[in-house]
What does this fold into?
Amino acid sequence: TDRLRAELELQEQRSKLSENNLIERQRDELRVRDEEIERLKDFKARQSTKMVGESLEQHCLTQFNSVRMMSFPNAYFEKDNDARTGSKGDFIFRESADGVEFISIMFEMKNECEDTAKKHRNEDFFKELDKDRREKKCEYAVLVSLLESDNELYNGGIVDVSYRYPKMFVIRPQFFLPLISLLRNAALSSLSYSRELSIIRDRECDL
It folds into this structure.
């Protein structure tokens, strides 16, 4: 009986020790998680608005470069560094076939810190983006935006705002590559039709 009691007490002590270890391990995991959350909050708080915007630009550039050689081997996609007209966009996409440019897109990327006092709206940037598109002779204008994060209109997908400015779209970053592919493929189809019409006209002239 004494031996049985001793074994039960030993098992109880082991169980308590195991339970204490589990609790301590969970506390450590929670502490590490909380420290990581605080670190990220501190990092974001120290970021300037300019840095937040640049991180979105870098994200889009990285996305494009990851598929550039496979999907857009002949395309031009670079920073718009030409501010001679007084303003500039963020990136310009152009692609040509047989020396003829068939698609061009002016991109503007917009983001802001969560604690920014004055919150901007997407439409605050439409006029300037349209101006940049026309001055750089681009066919389309695209605003890649994380602004108005709770706006269901912009969270739903690719938003055509050509009722405000011609050939302008607003997208979230996840639609960046899909929209380029969509516009490019539509332009390629138009190019094929133009070539076919040109061949038909040439044949009619010969006849």
Summary: The helical segments are 2-46, 49-71, 126-135, 152-155, 176-206. The chain has a mean pLDDT of 82. The longest strand covers residues 100-110.
